[in-house]
Amino acid sequence: MKCPFCQHDDIQVLDTRVSEEGDAIKRRRRCVNCDKRFTTWERIELTMPYVVKKNGSRTEYSADKLRASLMLALRKRPVAAESVDKAVASIEEKLLTSGQREVDSVFVGELVMAELKRLDKVAYIRFASVYKNFEDLAEFQDAIEEVGDGQELNPKA
Questions:
Q1: What pLDDT sits at residue 152?
Q2: What is the model's pLDDT at position 157?
Q3: Is residue 39 domain-shared with residue 78, that is, in the same domain?
Q4: Ranges of the chain with pLDDT below 50
Q5: Staple 134 to which of 14, 40, 57, 129, CB 3.0 to 4.6 Å?
Q6: Over the range 26-49, which residues count as b (16 or more CB within 10 Å of their CB) and which as e?
Q7: Given this model, what pLDDT does residue 133 score?
Q8: Contacts for 40 with CB less than 8 Å, ≥ 6 apart
């Protein structure tokens, strides 16, 4: 770090304190060359990766879009808002810890499907039918069997 007054790069840290909220560090510094003092702040900067769509276009990650997709699949399902919040937080954590600057929309879709499968099997089928572009009943049957613990859709009586 350079002194903002004389541009000298020999700086001493005189005092370090954590902010009241605990999300930043305040450092009081002194330049060895000009003896002037100044304050710096260190804050966590979390940058969500860009989402690369199937057509190759890139868009900023949007928590609102993610939540809207989950809520659409979960519409009229008995899932608490707190559970949806936890699912969004879980997906965001996985995106952040991926360490990538860009992720495919397919990766995000798979994370959403995993959370929906855990939250509500009907919502999972709803989302999967659109996401995977089901074209016939056999694809629905396969998805239902996947989440239905081996139960058949139309058991023969």
A1: 47
A2: 34
A3: no
A4: 150-157
A5: 129
A6: ebebbbeeeeeeeeeeeeeeeeeb
A7: 67
A8: 1, 26, 27, 29
